[in-house]
Amino acid sequence: MTQVYKHEVQVWDLLIRLFHWILVVAFATAWITSEWLQQPHELAGYLIVALLVARILWGFIGETHARFSDFLNKPSVVFRYLVDEFQGRASRYLGHNPAGGAMVIALLATLALTTTTGVLMANGWIDGGEWLEEVHEFGASFALFLVVLHLLGVLWSSLLHRENLIKAMLTGRKFVSGPDGTPENREATSGE
Are 38 and 121 in contact (CB under 8 A)? Predict the structure, then answer.
């Protein structure tokens, strides 16, 4: 009989964890101050711009699980994963699962739209009038909707795979198991 050992491995590097939690604070600040405190709202928006630039660069040159190539999948793979997830039989991924990877891209794109329109309005670079403000507000509202979906997905996946994904995003570490202490590879091939 083969003995199975369970141990932790580093998955999320410090930059990814800092990006994630600073973004949470910056987005919450921008959302809360949007109607009544313009300066903190704009400062939070500029911080989000800086975070987005850093995250996009890190998506190409960062650690394995931070790279876009590690978690970008075809829509058919994401759809198949979501079906498996709802049926309670989705594979566990060490990094982002296909739905999580799609959520990263959706959030980055939505925040890029929101901050771009915000910067254009704050600096008066485009006289977009009300339509630019409407796009900005739509982007912010859609980002909040995606955040709620993201949280629900994290909770569901945590329950399904019996792992604390919030703790993993704080510590950067996840448990793996396999015969003789080698990591078990239950990850589907990315990009199929």
Answer: no
For residue 184, pLDDT beyond 70: no
Of the chain, the end-to-end C-alpha distance in Å amounts to 34
Q: What span, in angstroms and rounded, lies between the C-alpha atoms of 94 and 173?
A: 10
Determine phi and psi for 82, rounding to 5 degrees. -60, -40
Give the span between the Cα atoms of 94 and 100, in whole angstroms.
12
Q: Give the list of residues 6+ apart from residue 95 with CB closer than 8 angstroms, or none.
A: 11, 64, 65, 70, 71, 187
- Amino acid, res. 104: V
Closest-CA residue to 67 (of 9, 13, 143): 13
Torsion of CA 66, 62, 185, 102, to 10 degrees: 30
Sign of the alpha-carbon dihedral angle for 82, 86, 92, 97: positive
- Report the sign of the C-alpha dihedral through residues 120, 121, 123, 127, in that order: positive
- Whole-prediction pTM value? 0.85
State the residue for tokens 């079906």. 83
Look up residue 80 and give its two tokens: 């198949």
pLDDT exceeds cutoff 60 at 188:
no
Rg for the chain, CA atoms, rounded = 19
Residues 21 and 157: their CA atoms lie apart, in Å, by: 20
